[in-house]
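for the record, two folds in this file. i put them one after another cuz i was lazy. first one right below, seq on top, structure tokens after. the second one comes after a little note so u can tell where it starts
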Amino acid sequence: MPLNAQQTLDTTDHDIIAELQRDGRTSIAQLARVVNLSASATAERVRRLTDGGVITGYSITVDAEALGYTVTAFVRLAYPSGNYRPFHDLVADMPEVIEAHHVTGADCFIIKVLARSMRDLERITGRLATLGGITTNVVYSSPVPARHITPAE
């Protein structure tokens, strides 16, 4: 099945997805107990969800401050050209860029960056500004952190 193709998911699939988002390290045996299936049936469903592109990978969540990043900011970039190759090349070499979204409106990209300090943020935004006009918004706090994805109704 092609990636991102619409699959018909049942409530057991939804439960598997929810549990794996809660704890991606859970074993198939534990997952099977949670969703009331055999381990082999659960493993087959996880394989089907993965092969179908619903589950795209597994990762951990880390505290950015614990890794030395005390500043989070969103940078809006008004990119003056339709040739996005320089943008892709620049951000590929910037580990501080943790998200980038091509958007509609006056800006072409919204970029989420992590910085060690305000001076570091100035360095990062300076590099991004070589591509076009930028507007930077520093995050005070995040009252709604990243959420798990639930099925669309």
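(here's the note) second protein begins now
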Amino acid sequence: MAGIKHGAPQVPSPLRVMIYFESTGWFNTTGEEKTNEILPTLNEVIASWKENGSELLGTFDRDILTAGPAGNTGWHACFLYNIPDLQTVADMTHSFRETGLDKYFRLEAVIGRPFFLLEKN
């Protein structure tokens, strides 16, 4: 059986980026810290991502059948974005470092493209 022939994958513009989100130190904080410090900062950072030209396409939270640490998957939720360029991706992950959110959460960005069999341009 012959395979589908196509050239090398083309890097899309904007970039298609999956951001994996894992709660780490979050579990070692008090309810007061979560409510008064961590969640307001997290909400500010994520709101700022709306202003950098990124488009949120969807989210996925694994919490229906899981609780506690992420385990082998290494993530609790993921966010799918179209992002203008690689520097913007780096700025988004860095926003967790510069605000101290990396003490409570881990981010990992993966760059891909729309799946050609399901999303045709």
